[in-house]
Amino acid sequence: MASADLRYELTCSICLNIYRDPVTLPCGHSFCRLCIAGVLNAQEEYGAYTCPECRAESQERPALEKNRKLGNIAQTFQSLFRGHRVSVTAVQSCLLCEASLCQKHLKVLEYYCCEDAACICVSCSLAGEHRGHQVETLNEASEKKKEKVRNILQKLTSQREEAEKSVQNLEELRRQVQEKAAGVTGHVSALIKDIRERLEALEKRVLSEISRQEEQVSLRVSDLIRQLEIKKEELTRKMGDIEDLCDMTDPLTVLQEKESDRDDYYMVLGVNTASDMLLGVNTASDMVLGVNTASDMVLNVNTAGNHVSVSGDLKTLSWTEVNQNRPETPERFQSNQVLSIRCVTSGKHYWVVEGSELGRWSVGMASVTISRKGRQSHIGNNNKSWGLWVRWHNNQYSVKHDRRTVRLPHVISCQRLGIYLDYEAGRLSFYELCDPIKHIHTFTAAFTEPLYFGLGLGYRSLRSNKSVSVVENGWVRIVNCI
């Protein structure tokens, strides 16, 4: 082992043999005279000289100083071990070490060519195909590559962390979506359940009202039939008397016969009353055909007058003495009323409204071309709108269209009303949603323009001592139910 170490120290790094006539460069490294002379001769045309070991540079050809002591040691070593094969560590013989030798020169790979990205030996760098290329020691090149790889590793680590963070964010998003979907599902299920219950309740009320009115009409018709049967028998008897009178030949007898009262031959029947009752049965059944709910209809603030206030949910209209000073637009009313945002151009629709027991309020429908200024813009004060007014101060309903007001005989019995519109049939009906449901009035018209749902407010001034004025303020709102 000691001889192998000594042999390594006495080996020229250029020819890889024991030194022959060793010389030393100014940097302190030693080589065979012929070996280093060949290297320096090859470098001469480049005008710069470098040590094959440490790459120390000089502009002038370095002086070669003979190293006698090293030469003596080399000669002694050769004489002692001449004819004997010295056991040397596997520098050239093992397969692993051969992988680190230059295949062309069989010298140790000590440098790295940056231009060709190849590991090279001294001969490749000084006199081979890599001569003049930028080279680095293997350690330097290795450290640079390690630094580059570390930077890549750092970037990859950062990207992996970002990917992990993105995965966590997506997992959180999925959880939130699942929670939101579950919440929406529960809300929709509860809403559908509530709508179903309301529909069932409405169906029971409407069917009950139809049955009640059917019974009333049936009783009335049965009574009329009984009266007609009695009258028919009486008429048959009187017709027989008249026929007998016509068959008499004695003029004196004919003239002396008492003339029957003409009223006996006529009878006024309550047909109109029966017809009205039948109308109530028909219109009440229509309420179950509505396809729109109150939640589909909200108020348009841009049409509201300046002395009415619209709630934040766009469902309630109320009176205010404070002028709202809203901007003037072509669609804004001067009067105390408001129209809906959506219009109706076809189909069957049903809404429910609820109003205060104070003041006056109205509901109805208006065409898109209704006037927005002056008294003629009030719902019902023109041929473009149809309205029902509720007057709690005198407990009375009235309907209005084309400036004609008709006071109805109905007495107000509840605050909630149903409005039913059949656009194609040209029917607009109003109902009291009490128990039982009562038909108030039905407008008939040929609707040709888009219709908007409308709410209006009025007020009544109560004066005392000719100086005090009390205003009864009212409100009306769309109810979120079917």
TrEMBL record:
GO function terms (MF aspect): zinc ion binding
Domain RING-type: residue ranges: 12-55
Keywords: Coiled coil, Immunity, Innate immunity, Metal-binding, Ubl conjugation pathway, Zinc, Zinc-finger
Limits of the B box-type domain: 97-138
B30.2/SPRY domain segment(s): 277-473
Pfam family, one: zf-RING_UBOX
UniProt-recorded name of the protein: Uncharacterized protein
Organism this protein belongs to: Leptobrachium leishanense (Leishan spiny toad)
